[in-house]
């Protein structure tokens, strides 16, 4: 039991250290506005991609509509903060966005999660496109022009804290009863069902959880970028999140972090290449996939607890998860 | 009634383009279970090739069409060889991401080399409109429909009557068993990519002629719509892809005609989801239930 | 009242009677075998009993505290929750999960906590995980899997995979366990160990066992009662001794008589 608390404290220490480090780097001027922007983008991408990895990597459901949930969060925040431009309004809008996204996830998930593999991918993609078309045509969302002058109610510290919180919740979900159930379904749905696991319920749970965190990412995107339009949440945006997941390694949360950071940095570095930027990006993507087909980290996870276990020379205790 | 028939004609013209594209998706998916995201960009390259040879060499339309098919077939086979063949035994999602990478590469490579601007497709065939029973039909629409149907019939003949077609069907059912009876899966897969890409190239030239404008990103949306068409028809099924293509084309023009053009994409996806919920393997797909 | 009662159970697949008009019952604590030639409909019957395939007609009822509850129309996970666990003819493990996780996954419905306890790691979560861990350890020990507990299931030898699958079925805390050809592909030593294991399912875990098996030595050795299926119909039922003498069985299935 002791390693459990040690590991938790170690993670907390790392989180606090990272926070302080970024602060110091901003004060001494190493991190300028440009890099800060990069960090925030990376943070939002982590929130989006860990949720998608839960759906794809852990529950094995190929969802291709993540940007749709992000749009729900972003628009909830844009609309609510336009009449309540306060920090309270922001968090309220985030909560509303999460709830709507969960509702939408249930509405999409109940009929479509029965579908297999690529059929599910294409159905979720379609559902996300329907969301986008609706946003494109509503008055309250200001149609295709989108919403601008969204109050800047969150800076990098908020994003940082929310990255930590959502990751914690998603990892806790993935490494518990729910996580075992969804992974069992991923491996063999028939055997899982014969073992008393309701596949619809648990697939839906992962899908709703992923949708809820995507809404958080969308809310942060709205108040940080301050301008949103339906075209920000199209198929290509869903694919961008998928790329992070696959590049990092499907099923590895550590990999998702790494891929989000690598792609964020790559994107920033490539800014100076002008029109060649996307050509290089595309080539990099193809080459990484051809030479590292299971992603940067495969299924590997960093685990402080396992490290403590090894260091202490203890036999892995029976109640310790493989990694935490 | 007249406007209805008019919309049917328009829908069939658009639908035949979707169908040509959907055939490539469905063949590739049927054989290696890959959603070839770059397929729409092959169509774009086909359109650009047509633009290039007509403007530079002043060739007539059919030379442009046929040469474009040859070029895109070669390109499709080259992409398969370089980007997909190394991933034959990797997770399918990896191959999918690679296909997305290829799509980005083609789109942005073309933008980089030739500029991202839209350009006018040369009028290789002078447009003439005919009034038939109050409906306007252009010679270009007729040309598109006839060409598309000829290509589809040709494809069906290749798949059903030739040795290569038999091999394609064999590899699609069971690649290992096919290899055991002496079929080289690499040849067959390569041929499939060539065939599908040639159809996409033809579609590109036809759409250039129809809409008069082309740009490096022109393949994105039709590519996705065509994939939806292939799924609606039952992915892996060649007649299904053709039916799906025409269906999506008709649906889009229909929704547009009743004044809901802002919702035409949504309508396509609603139909997609409804069809999948009722028929999880599309209209003509086989629903394979796992044996316990 | 028997634990499980089946009357008039039939399944037609496109005009073909895979299983026709089956009447059978299983008493609490019994060890029952289901035998028959290949294609006789044994696995189909298992699939009907565990909810994988809906029957065309007939009834299946389970005795739950003196009440008979129908299992017809219940999805497999509910059937499992009600106490019917099974293994599969072609082993179906959660391949990329460890042995421990395979077993724990089967307790999803047995030990629960609410969602917030789960993602916020509240005390209820740890209390529940403790119960899961205790029961898992007991099963790992009982099925001699402790050494392989943290290996991925698909890396294990065949015989061990069979044991994991049985352990996973027991983890659901069933009343009846259905074993679909547990000895298939095993050598005589492994079969002997399996026979002992199946006996322990009853003595240690107080389970009722129904098994499909082609290995006649194992069947005659273990079963108290045997049902014989041919072309989807029950052709005989009785004790091993009676079945070995049964004319219909000998004619239809065994040809030259039963030799243990």
Description:
The complex is a heterotrimer of chains A (324), B (292) and C (260). Chain A has 324 residues and is mainly alpha-helical. Chain A has helices at 2-27, 33-58, 66-83, 87-112, 117-137, 156-174, 177-187, 189-194, 199-225, 235-248, 253-270, 277-291, 304-311. In chain A, helix 2 runs antiparallel to helix 9 (199-225) and helix 7 crosses helix 9. Chain A is globular, with a radius of gyration of 20 Å. The model of chain A is unreliable at 314-324 (pLDDT under 50). Chain B has one domain (15-219). Helices cover 73% and strands 4% of the residues of chain B. Chain B has eleven helices and four strands. Chain B has helices spanning 2-32, 39-57, 61-84, 92-114, 139-161, 163-173, 175-180, 185-211, 220-233, 238-257, 264-278; strands at 119-120, 129-132, 135-138, 213-214. With 260 residues, chain C is of the alpha/beta class. In chain C, helix 7 links the parallel strand 7 (176-180) and strand 8. Mean pLDDT of chain C is 92; it is low at 256-260. The chains are: A mainly alpha (324), B mainly alpha (292), C alpha/beta (260). Chains in contact: A-B, A-C, B-C. Chain B binds chain C through residues 292, and chain C through 43, 47, 52-53, 88.
Main beta sheet of chain C: strand number and arrangement? 6 strands, mixed
Could you tell me how far the N terminus lies from the C terminus of chain C, measured between alpha carbons in angstroms?
33 Å
Determine the N-to-C terminus distance of chain B. 53 Å
Q: Estimate the helix proportion of chain C, in percent.
A: 25-40%
Oligomer: heterotrimer
Largest interface: A-B, 44 and 47 residues
- Determine the CATH topology of the largest domain in chain C: Rossmann fold
Major β-sheet annotation of chain B: 2 strands, antiparallel
Short description:
The complex is a heterotrimer of chains A (324), B (292) and C (260). Chain A has 324 residues and is mainly alpha-helical. Chain A is 73% helix and 0% strand.
Key attributes of the depicted protein:
heterotrimer, A: 324 residues, mainly alpha, 73% helix, disordered C terminus, B: 292 residues, two-stranded antiparallel ribbon, two-stranded antiparallel sheet, 4 strands, globular
Task: Detail the topology: elements first, then pairings.
The complex is a heterotrimer of chains A (324), B (292) and C (260).
Chain A: H1 2-27, H2 33-58, H3 66-83, H4 87-112, H5 117-137, H6 156-174, H7 177-187, H8 189-194, H9 199-225, H10 235-248, H11 253-270, H12 277-291, H13 304-311
Chain B: H1 2-32, H2 39-57, H3 61-84, H4 92-114, E1 119-120, E2 129-132, E3 135-138, H5 139-161, H6 163-173, H7 175-180, H8 185-211, E4 213-214, H9 220-233, H10 238-257, H11 264-278
Antiparallel strand pairs in B: 1-4, 2-3
Helix pairs in contact in B: 1-5, 1-8, 1-9, 1-10, 2-3, 2-4, 2-8, 2-9, 3-8, 5-6, 5-8, 6-8, 9-10, 9-11, 10-11
Chain C: E1 4-13, E2 16-26, E3 31-35, H1 42-49, E4 57-64, E5 67-70, H2 76-81, E6 84-86, H3 99-105, H4 115-119, H5 123-142, H6 158-171, E7 176-180, H7 188-203, E8 208-212, H8 216-222, E9 225-230, E10 233-238, H9 240-245, H10 247-254
Parallel strand pairs in C: 3-8, 3-9, 6-7, 7-8
Antiparallel strand pairs in C: 1-2, 1-4, 4-5, 9-10
Helix pairs in contact in C: 3-6
